[in-house]
Amino acid sequence: MPKDFRFGVGLLPKESRAAWQEAARRIEDLGYDIVHVPDHLDAPAPLLSLLAAAEVTTIRLGTFVLNAGFYKPALLARDVAALDMLSDGRFELGLGTGYVQEEFEAAELPFPSAGRRVDYLEHTTAYMKEHLSNVPVLIAGSGDRVLTIAARRADIIGIAGGRPDRTDSLGERIEFVRRAAGDRLDELELNLAIIAVPRDGSGVPSLTLARRYAPDLPDEVLMKHPGVLSGSPRDMADALRHHRDTYGLTYFTVQEHHAASFSKVIAELR
Question: Are strands 60-63 and 66-67 parallel, antiparallel or unpaired?
Answer without folding.
Answer: unpaired
